[in-house]
Amino acid sequence: MMDITITGKIEKKGFGFGVWALVTPEGTTYELKEIPEILRQDIDRVKIKGKIREDILTISMIGPVLEIESFKII
């Protein structure tokens, strides 16, 4: 697992129930794992520290899975 700190916006992606994602200004998308309730909404700017989980695959396949350790809404 790789530690990373990323700034971007939170959006809901996919079909049906969808998944919450962090989208960077460069357009990279990360699927968020174990997202706190407060982040389950569209947010224009947030900084998230977490781990890239290369050992997890999901059916949404929108990007790497990011397990949140801490965050700050900017």
Verbal overview:
This protein is mainly β and 74 residues long. It has one domain: OB fold (Dihydrolipoamide Acetyltransferase, E2P). The protein has no helices and five strands. The chain has strands spanning 2-13, 19-23, 29-33, 43-53, 65-73. The radius of gyration is 11 Å and the shape is globular. The protein starts with a strand and ends with a strand. The mean pLDDT is 93.
Features:
5-stranded mixed beta barrel, mainly beta, 5 strands, globular
- CATH homologous group name: Nucleic acid-binding proteins
Cα end-to-end separation: 26 Å
Radius of gyration: 11 Å
Mean pLDDT: 93
As for the CATH topology, it is OB fold (Dihydrolipoamide Acetyltransferase, E2P)
Low-pLDDT stretches are: none
CATH class: Mainly Beta
- Strand line-up across the major sheet: 1-2-3-5-4
Total strand segments: 5
Most strands sheet: 5 strands, mixed, barrel
By secondary-structure content and strand pairing, the structural class works out as: mainly beta
Write a compact overview of the structure shown.
The chain is mainly β and 74 residues long.
Helix and strand arrangement:
Blueprint: E1 2-13, E2 19-23, E3 29-33, E4 43-53, E5 65-73
Parallel strand pairs: 3-5
Antiparallel strand pairs: 1-2, 1-4, 2-3, 4-5
